[in-house]
Design goal:
It contains five helices and no strands.
Length: about 160
């Protein structure tokens, strides 16, 4: 009788592990589907906001970065701009990866390789020959990373730290 209880306990632990594994897979699928839905609904707004942000950065924020008195404002504006461009980049990367390679590639990009959907989207667009889409992703990545680098530089010069 004791052996029966041991077998049943082992079986119940195994079944619980299977249920937890299936629940995790379900939650991941739900997250990917939800993120894709949100991205599809809001990408056009963020794309428009990204263009407006680019115009504002070029014509207002970058000139504000020249005098030392206004560098802190320019630094904060660049930080906000980098987040706008970064969100747009992530949404586009997710949607391109999903459309060109499917949800398995999104899962691999997000959870297995840890590199995210943006590089996966870039590789997918290159392999599929979608050069305009690759250019969009590359341009947004340069804007995002470049604005964060310039933001760091400006914030360091405001604090009086030696740069370079």
């Amino acid at each position: 009788m004791r052996r029966f209880y041991e077998v049943m306990q082992s079986l119940s632990v195994t079944m619980l592990g299977c249920v937890i594994f299936i629940a995790i897979i379900f939650l991941v699928a739900l997250f990917i589907r939800g993120a894709a839905w949100v991205s599809a609904k809001f990408l056009s707004w963020f794309a428009f906001l990204s263009v407006i942000t680019l115009v504002l950065v070029v014509f207002i924020v970058l000139p504000l970065a020249i005098p030392k008195e206004t560098r802190e404002i320019a630094s904060m504006a660049l930080r906000i701009a980098s987040h706008i461009w970064g969100i747009t980049l992530w949404m586009e990367g997710l949607l391109y990866t999903l459309r060109l390679w499917g949800p398995t590639a999104v899962f691999i990009g997000l959870f297995v390789l840890g590199i995210g959907v943006v590089p996966m989207g870039m590789v997918a667009t290159i392999i599929k020959g979608k050069w305009l889409h690759f250019g969009e992703l590359l341009f947004l990545a340069i804007l995002t990373l470049g604005s964060r680098i310039v933001d760091t530089y400006l914030s360091e010069t405001v604090r009086g730290e030696e740069v370079l």
